[in-house]
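Q: My collaborator sent me two sequences in one message, no labels, and asked for predicted structures for both. Can we handle them in order? The first one she listed is below.
A: Yes, handling them in the order given. First sequence, followed by its structure tokens:
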Amino acid sequence: MTISPNARTIFRNYVMDGVPSSGNHKINKGDERNWGTALENAIDAYSTGAGSIAKATRALLFADLAHAADVMAWVYADTTAAYNGIYRKSLGTGTGSWTRILDLPHDVITATDAGAGTANAIVATSTLPVSESALILLNVFEANTGAATVAFNGGSALTIKTASGNDVVSGGLVAGMALLGRISGSTFRLVSDQASAAIQAAAEAAQVAAEAALAAIDLPPIAANTMLVDNELGTDREAKTFSEVRARLGDFDTEAAFEAATISVVLTDVVTRGYYAAGDGGGHRKVRIATPSPAKAWHKQSADGAWWEIADPEYDARYFGVSTARTAVENSALLQDAIDAASTNKRKLHIRGGPFNCAGGLYARTKLTMEWAPGSYLHQTEYSSTGAFFTNVSPVQAERAVSDIVLINPLIDLSSITYDVSDTTHSENGIGFARGAERITIWGGHIKGVRPNFNSAGGWGGKAIGLDGGVKCFTAISVRMEGTFYGAWVRGNEGAFSNGLDGLEQTQSNKFIGCHFEDVSLPIAIMGRDPNEDPDYRAQDISAQFIANTYHNGGFAPDVPASNSNRYKGGLINIGEAQNFLIDGFTGWNDDDYVSQKGGWPATGDVIGQGLSGAPCHIINGWGGAGTIRNIQAQGPVEDHWHCGRAFAMGDDAAPTGKVKVNYLLIDNIRHIGSAVNVFSQDDYSQVAASGDLRARMDNIYPYALSDGIVAANAESLVNMTMRVFQSSAKYIDGTPSFIYNTVGNAVAASDSSSWTEDSRVSKPQSYPIKTVADNATISFALSKLDGLIAFSCSASLAQGILKYRCSAGSTQASIYGPASIGNVAVTTGASPAGTASTLTFSFDDSGNMWVNNQRGASLNLTFNQLA
């Protein structure tokens, strides 16, 4: 008998029997159990007489129940093939039933194709019933012409499959051919194979078809460093270089390459690696947009006509083409594009990769945030048409209303503008806002080299930061202003501007906190209205606060040519009819040998501050009302602590215009180290305060040395003002100027001032230039109590060099090698060569400057020279 699947199939070695490359066969436990059960049934059947009962049909068997239980019988010729097989009797004689348990034990069944079917639909018969458990040997009556089927004994048509599982090919079944196969589900799977001649013919036909298809392909010739890609329409292949393939994918080296490209409509975003060249910092991502209306400068169009805009979450000015290779005029236009785009799209704008030359005249926009990277200065090289490098003063009135602006570390340098004494048209300021600007914040930064033009009819300019009538809620924090005429200039009075717009609103709630003024002629300037026009000092007229600011070398102005009729000395604090203001904390000093370092100014020596006799400046200069000035610590020679005189205010309001009138002014806690003429004086000119027009108080004034007295002779009649001036830690004078001058002895303070020593001097602000050492030069100088920067010009070799130092003339000189590259390198020594145990620190910052901190209390002699 036959058991299917048989033991050879179940326990074969390989997946495909006899084919080792097909892999090891894993035995199926279900097949193993079925095989064993069938074997047991067969043994059981034979042991109980199986085969002794044989019926032609199942019906005949089912009619014969006269047999004991477990008797086996065969059904061998039933027209229903499935009924043929081995049966087992259940229950006793005369009852029960027969159950089919096994196929008949035939290994090979012969079937005949007598031509009853067709070439591709064979009809075959067999004397024995066919089943999946037996092999079938079948002759072929006629050759097939395509895929074929076979039906056995009137059964369903079975698809003939080759041994490998494919349909037979045309001519694969040849007349007279003997096929050996087995039934598997709905297929007749051959064990033998189809005719090899037909297979060869099919292979040859396939070869011809393949060769024809190959000949039909028209590909570009092979070229070095190219690859084949679909064309734009997807209808052909073409050879493209790698960069061309990148462009096809939306990846471009430059902005020009992007603009020249025809970009596939399936791409919604593209990238550029740079603006002018890959890696220049101008690379960014763009996204496809609908046609903008109107199109702005920051909207870009590719050659196919599609529109794009920058998609990065923050902008870089280099995305818009700003470059060190561009002219100043070009950079200004591109910077304006960047500012407009950042404001419109509410993105932060970064200034990186500078310094950049600019022509100035940049207009501020609402909701703008800009941040400068270290060293990325904007250098203005020529005058702007606006009178300020960064401003809201636009010829278009609607554009002046700007708000919510944040400038982080702005780096602005106007020192490249050439001063022309014959120029009567231009003047320039650094950052200038006027009526219509509000909610503006500046964090940190450096504004330098803002010079005045004394001959300009429209105003002198020269302001590092200038706020004109109508600016509201402005805040500057930790801004460094250097080498400028004015430092922070705030005005609240009405005035007409060059574009015909009037400053009808008043400046309110503006603050300067923690700022530093370095080499600034007039560090703080607050200008208000004529008190004769506004005697009530209304709070809306001006509101300015200066909190915890510092200075070094200031108040030497107004540096006005002596030919100018307004020849007055300036002050550290300048109030020109100012009102409703607060100055709380202003600390710093002037060097004894200071000479203005602002190059490019008139070289005749006919400049006030360098040409006038006596001390160079006042601590406070001017008059006003409803204001407080307190906690001032100043060092260095001055003329007066408060000179109630003309505080020169350049611009549309050229100077205080009315009679001196001071109401409700408090000056409290001025500590001064250095020589002075008077504590208090007023003008000797026509603008002299009448006794009743000066209502103020000076409290807690600590002079160091007075050459004249507490009160100047021109103020001896004033009786409404009160003063408290300390002569020493235990003695003070309290009274009106008239009382002090005429009654208690005005000169006492000068003779008793020796109790004040330099031990009480204020702490000096840090980070100020001491010396400039040219590249490949050697220079020596001595410094005492130094805590600041020595600036280097090291364009070729950075900060590399040898620094030699000693702490006194007789001590041993030691050497320190500077860093080979810039980058915050610090060198700290221990005990000094002279034996003083203390700390001496040298460090180099990112701009090539050397920081020196000497706490030894001994003179420090420095020699610097470049390495060979």
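Q: And the one she listed second?
A: Here it is, processed independently of the first:
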Amino acid sequence: MPQHTSTRQSPGTGEKTRTKPAEAEARAEQSGAGAGARTGAGTRTQTRTEADAGTGSEAGTEAKAEAATAARTGAETGTEAGTEAKAGTGAGTRAGARIDAETATSAGAEAATGAGAGAGAEAGTEAKAGTGAGTRAGARIDAETATGAGAEAATGAGAEAGARAGAGAGAEAGAVEPSAYEADAPDAGGTQAEVPEAPLPETEVPEAELPESQVPKVEVPDVEARDGGAPRWPRSGRAALFALGAPFPAVRRRQKGHPVVARVLSRAVTVLAAALVIMAMVMPNTVVDLGPARFARIPAEAVVGAAVMLALPRRPRTVLAAVAGAVLAATTVLNLLDMGFRQYLGRDFNPVLDWSLLGDAQSYLEDSLGRTATLAATAGVIVVVLLLFVLLALSTVRLSNLLARHTGPASRGTLIAGVVWITCSSLGLEISGVPIASHRTTTALQDQVQRVTDTLRDEAEFRKVARVDAFGNTPGSQLVPDLRGKDVIFTFVESYGRSAIEDPIEAPGVDRLLDERTKALAQAGYHAKSGWLTSATYGGGSWLGHSTTMSGLWVSNQQRYRTVMASDHLSLTEAFKKTGAWDTVGVMPGVQKAWPEQKYYGLDKVYNAFQLGYRGPKFSWSTMPDQYALEQFQRRVHGRKRADGKDLMSFVILTSSHQPWAPVPKMIRWDRLGDGSAFKSIEAAGDRPADVIADTSRSRQEYGRSVEYSVTALTEWLTRYGTDDTVLVFLGDHQPIARVSGNHASRDVPISIVARDPKVLDRIAGWGWTDGLRPAHDAPVWRMSAFRDRFLTAYGSTPHPKKR
């Protein structure tokens, strides 16, 4: 049998010791650990040598013995199936367990006393020579730990082998590929390896062997060596996490104490993540479409996303999943905004133009609910949006990692889902009228992109339309000649829509009032004709209705509004100023900041909310009751004789019928209005806005009452202060919100012209309008933008187009 010798340096002595083959065999036989040397010509054995003194090397190095039998240096301990224990090791451990330096020292000190060195290791583990502790395959004990542990190893018979620290490079049963850290075993010629001295630490050796039940069973990540032998934690996040938690018993107990609970929680989180992602993918953008059937759908985006995630490596997959989650969150936010805008404004949210309206919405909430509630609501919205982005990003990453860990089942599931989606889409299968196959997210993104594109295109086209004006070049002398000498008043009643006259809940009271006020006007010598106009806005955005009526252009969004306000397109109010025969005045109790639109409307003077002397309470959003605003209009403007002898054209905006319709003012005696303090008791006794907003039925009822109040205040003012030359044109600016007017209500608003002079109404006899203040259901309906030209033409204006 060829000789195989190895040279080890005994810890603490610096002496080189040569172990002869015969001695190795004898000690192996004495140890009772099984055959320490393997026989048979040409047999491949696994062994490792380590330069560091006393350290057990990693499993996996192969050495080919040229002789028929290859003897391992150091006595081998007996092993269980498929495992090898190193000579000199003191304690066998379960696979995957690690012994720290202190434990290894204690365990190694009393290991293998008497005949036979070492304890048996379980299958799949290896015990390092000279360490005093068996470790999991691939786990490494550093030099210091091994040196201290191996100092007292293997006393008694076979102690010589165990005392030689560093003797015992163990290998796990079964061949593995050599790694960069492996070194070939010495050949049959017996090359001696020099190892540096390592000081022997002084350790107190207990006399009792550590029971296996007390050996910590903590998994240790592989530790790679830096240059110079310093350990480095691996890149794996899980391994690093276990390594950080290993020294802390509390962490270990949490990790292993409740495995069932941890597994259930993990699965619950995964289910919630999947539910959140699916709900975001199939969420509709209208409140009326919300329902269980909308969420029981198969989103095509989920199927395609799963297929893509399965095909990507880890890092690109994670990045793409996070980005997809953020995009999905943004789409969800836009869907929610669409819901709100449809409910309040009857249209979708425009991502280009409507961000500025969020500030107005906050002001509305502050006026309606108070500053504290508004700040809390605003903070809550911000938190919800941020959480939505974070949770959806984390959810998509978690689901993508789950797919990567279970590639086989995930691939099959994705294929099945794809086949089902195609089948349902092809056959048009539905649940409660809702298609099972969904591509809602893709459609939503396409819609948003289309809105942006349409907005940018519309801006350029509308500028061209605004340059064309049928009366743009008409001289002032040829504008509204048939109204010369008249006191003309244009009045908008907030949210006065068709629903107020035809809705079964709101209409009875409003219709009865309109009939009563028609009779009262007739008794005062006034007559009226009424029709319908289709507003350019719905539920809000009153300024869009005002500008559409006055400009003769369809001003349906904020960009168009800005374009019109910056243009010289003739407004109806500007036409009166252009004649030179009228003074022009605006009464705007709802305006609480600078109002540059005054120039476009051609108003010589504007009275805003702070210039009417009101000292009473606000009625929710409305700064003052309409009765008070009309009384101040009479005192400050209408009732005064003008020094220049001109007629008066007035532009009045009434606000008491503005949502949330609580509290609603009540009519009081005109001579008791004073500075408005008389309304304090009425406001205090009224409903709270929060109570009405939360109740749809009450909102509809209170809306009807608010319209009754505004129409009563206006018509009473007319009968009280009107003259033979007074011409009143009043109309609504838009319908109330969908919660009040209904999800499928029209955008129509009533319009009436009232005058004592019969010639004024004779000029519009061909319009087909209904006599009185209540237009018939089948009365003519025009677009609101058509009113300017029809009105100018009816009262003698001559068109002189302007084209640029």
